[in-house]
Structure formats: structure tokens, C-alpha cells
Automatic annotation (TrEMBL):
This is Amino acid transporter transmembrane domain-containing protein. Keywords: Amino-acid transport, Cell membrane, Membrane, Transmembrane, Transmembrane helix, Transport. It is found in: Cell membrane. It comes from the Eukaryota. Pfam families: Aa_trans. It comes from Cuscuta campestris. The lineage of its organism: Eukaryota, Viridiplantae, Streptophyta, Embryophyta, Tracheophyta.
Length: 462
């Protein structure tokens, strides 16, 4: 009995048994990974569809940037301004299509996050260093700008509906309105995953189309102003050059959705028969049509009506009718509430993934809420400290948005698909890369000058 037992205990597993054990262990690991993915913000749900794609993309694309486009036109002038707007629309739609195609460039594998695609294209370590800093600058930068935009829009709504300041008192500080916006974001940060904010995106997308329409229709109704001039804004050559460069950043900021495209596509179910790129491309195409309906009328009509006297936020130039401007500003507030979340969720996902996978924290509500509260608080504090709307648009637009939108997708496309040299695909991609690099270099220069000028009249936490 003992010998029999010892022989059984001492029996070495066969290769097939060892393989079965390995498969079991592997399945367990896969199950754990799947369970973990259900907890993360980006991969928590795959129930998205092309309509969700439309709303998420519109919410990400049409934001604070559209309000600054007439001012960008004033800096660029009719010819260059119109050309750059149209070219940007074409180039960014092309690079968006590339991102959608590359999401499942490898059969059986999905690149759910921008940095995952970057790691595949550039290598595990280099891909992280190239993509993650750029993506974070886009998303965090956008959230900071939207903190400022949301607070100022709420302030504008308040002053439009009620008296400009309390009777016998001082005006309510912009800081307090930014804090209100931040408080709303703290509440929305409880929403666990990207797909779960679809309702917020739907409302935000409707708001963006609404206030864009109000902006250009109200401008058209106001008529060309007597002092409207289409001469350069700056009187000196240096001023015009810096203004031109800053305006390039404004245009780049208006096309910011690429940093969240793969994360949006990750919410859509994909099978070999029906890959996710079908509904994603359909949704993105509809979104870009809506973008054109928002951007071009606001830019052209706004500049035509106000000329070079237009403000860096078109709604500031539109003072009357007071009730309509109040509605437009509250629409902006509601929209950037949703848009903040669209850009924040991938950051939440990145932070939570790092804490759980690298730092070995246990996935929990406490971890999720603590991480998100800290992030919202930091962006709110920075927004209150540096509320330079125009300068921030230009700086982040050029320094961060241009790479992730205009040329990094093209570089990855060339690496992954290797089109033949001097073919149409190769040529178009290199043209986009050259234009994108120029935009990245020039726009921040003009933006920094604008921030310096605006900061001279600024008081901390005013």
C-alpha cells in the first residue's frame, strides 16, 4: 500500500498533463485579467455603438476651441485662415481614420489605448515615452482649459441673468465659479467607465451644436459692425507674426479628439465578422460632419461680423440679446461638463491601471474615488491659478494637440503598414508629418507671448 502510494506520489506528470495544468493556470490568469479589465474605466464595458461614437467624438471635438476660431481667423486673415481651417479638417479626419484602422491592425488584438498602439509601433519602452507624455498633456491640458471655460461661462451666465455685481459689493470672483464647475466634476467622477458616461456625452453633444448655432446665428443677426476691419490685429510685423503662430494653436486645439479615439473605440464590441472599425468609422464620419457644421459657420460669420475686434471667446463679443447669450453660456457650461469627463476618463484609466498593475493596489471604490478626486482637484487648482483662456488654447493646441492629432498617427501608420516609398499613402503621410511638426514648433511660441501679455493684468485667484 505504502509502496503503491509512494509510486503514485512520485509519478512524474506526463507532458499532456503538464500542458493541461499550464492551460488551467493560463486560463486562470486570463480570467483574472478579464475581471480586472471590467474594473478599469476604458475596458469596463463593450456595449457601445456607432451612435455612442458620434456623441463621444462630438463632445470631444466641439468644445471651447470653436469659440476661439473667429479670433484665430482675425489673426490669420481671410485667405490663410480659411485655408488652414479646411486643411485642418481634412488632415485630422484622415488621421482619425488611420487611428480607427490601426485599432485592430493585428488580427485578434485590440489596441484599446493610444499608448498601447504607440508601444506596438515604437517599442514597449520608447512607445510609452513618446505617446504617454503627449497624450497626458492633451487630456490634462484640455481638462484645465475646460475648468477655466466652464467657470467663466457660468460666470457670464450669472452676470447676464442677474446684475453684473451684487448691490454695493464686489463682483464674484471667477475662482468661485471654477470651484462650482470642479464640484460638478467631483460628482461625475463617480461614474465608473467610459461607456457609462454615454448619457452625459449625448447631452453635451447636443449642447455643443446648440451654442455653436447660437454663436453664428446671433452674429449674423447682429450684422456687420461699423468698426469691423479685416486688417491684421497687430500693428507691428512682430505682433502679427506672433499672433499668426498663436492662431495656429487655436485651430489645433479645435481638433483634440484623437487622444481619446482608441479609448472610444474600445467601448464597441468587435468580432472577426463585425470588427469595431465599422461602427466607429460611421460614427466618426457623422461626428466630423457635425464638426464642420459647427466650426465653419462660427469661424467665418463671427469674423465677418466683428472683424479684428472679435474677442478670443465669440460669446463675449455678443453682448445682446442678453437672454440668448445667457442661454448660450449655460449651454457651454453643460457641454464642457461632459467634455471634461470624456478627456478625464482615459486619465483615470491610466492612473488606476498604474496603481493596480504596477503599484499592486487592490481595485476598490476607495482607490477609484481617491484617485479621481485628487486629479479633479489638481486641474481645478491649476485652472484657478492660470485662467488665461486664449493663451492656454494656443499653447496646448500647438505643443500637445498637434503631435497626437496631426503627425503621430501618420508616423505609426508608416511604421506598421510600411507603404511603398513615394506612393500616394507615403507622400500624404509625410506631408501631414511636416505640417504637424511646423505647427508644433510655431504655435507655442505665439501662445507663450500671449500668456505673458494676459498675465500682466492678472491677480492671483481673482
Amino acid at each position: 500500500m505504502n509502496s503503491s502510494s509512494s509510486s503514485v506520489v512520485g509519478v512524474r506528470p506526463t507532458d499532456s498533463e503538464a500542458a493541461a495544468d499550464d492551460d488551467h493556470d493560463q486560463m486562470t490568469a486570463e480570467q483574472k485579467e478579464a475581471k480586472l479589465n471590467e474594473w478599469f474605466a476604458v475596458t469596463g464595458s463593450r456595449n457601445g455603438n456607432w451612435l455612442f461614437s458620434v456623441f463621444h467624438n462630438v463632445t470631444a471635438l466641439v468644445g471651447a476651441g470653436v469659440l476661439g476660431l473667429p479670433y484665430a481667423m482675425a489673426q490669420l486673415g481671410w485667405g490663410p485662415g480659411t485655408t488652414i481651417l479646411v486643411l485642418s479638417w481634412i488632415i485630422t479626419f484622415f488621421t482619425l481614420w488611420q487611428m480607427v484602422e490601426m485599432h485592430e491592425a493585428i488580427p485578434g488584438r485590440r489596441f484599446n489605448r493610444y499608448h498601447e498602439l504607440g508601444q506596438y509601433a515604437f517599442g514597449e519602452r520608447l512607445g510609452l515615452w513618446i505617446v504617454v507624455p503627449q497624450q497626458l498633456m492633451v487630456q490634462v491640458g484640455t481638462n484645465i482649459v475646460y475648468m477655466v471655460t466652464g467657470g467663466k461661462s457660468l460666470q457670464k451666465f450669472y452676470t447676464s441673468v442677474w446684475a453684473p455685481q451684487p448691490a454695493g459689493g464686489k463682483p464674484i470672483r471667477t475662482t468661485y465659479f471654477i470651484m462650482i464647475f470642479g464640484a460638478v466634476q467631483l460628482l461625475l467622477s463617480h461614474i465608473p467607465s467610459f461607456n457609462d458616461i454615454a448619457g452625459v456625452s449625448i447631452i453635451a453633444a447636443i449642447m455643443s451644436l446648440s451654442y455653436s448655432t447660437i454663436a453664428w446665428v446671433a452674429s449674423a443677426k447682429k450684422g456687420v459692425q461699423p468698426d469691423a476691419s479685416y486688417q491684421p490685429v497687430a500693428s507691428t510685423g512682430t505682433g502679427r507674426a506672433f499672433g499668426f503662430m498663436a492662431a495656429l494653436g487655436d485651430v489645433a486645439f479645435a481638433y483634440a479628439a484623437h487622444s481619446v479615439v482608441l479609448e472610444i473605440q474600445a467601448t464597441i464590441k468587435s468580432t472577426p465578422e463585425k470588427p469595431s472599425k465599422g461602427p466607429m468609422l460611421k460614427g466618426s464620419t457623422f461626428a466630423y460632419i457635425i464638426v464642420a457644421l459647427c466650426y465653419f459657420p462660427v469661424s467665418i460669420v463671427g469674423y465677418y461680423v466683428f472683424g479684428n475686434s472679435v474677442q478670443d471667446n465669440i460669446l463675449i463679443s455678443l453682448e445682446k440679446p442678453r437672454w440668448l447669450i445667457a442661454i448660450a453660456n449655460i449651454f457651454v457650461f453643460i457641454h464642457v461638463v461632459g467634455s471634461y469627463q470624456v478627456f478625464a476618463v482615459p486619465v483615470f484609466d491610466m492612473l488606476e491601471t498604474y496603481l493596480v498593475k504596477t503599484m499592486k493596489f487592490k481595485p476598490s471604490r476607495r482607490l477609484r474615488y481617491t484617485t479621481r478626486y485628487i486629479y479633479v482637484g489638481v486641474t481645478m487648482l491649476i485652472g484657478m491659478t492660470f485662467p488665461f483662456f486664449g493663451g492656454l488654447l494656443s499653447f496646448f493646441g500647438g505643443f500637445a494637440f498637434a503631435p497626437t492629432t496631426y503627425f503621430i498617427p501618420c508616423v505609426m501608420w508608416l511604421i506598421i503598414f510600411k507603404p511603398k516609398r513615394f506612393s500616394l499613402s507615403w507622400t500624404v503621410n509625410w506631408l501631414c508629418i511636416i505640417l504637424g511638426v511646423l505647427l508644433t514648433i510655431l504655435a507655442p511660441i505665439g501662445a507663450l507671448r500671449l500668456i505673458v501679455i494676459q498675465s500682466k493684468s492678472y491677480k492671483l485667484f481673482s
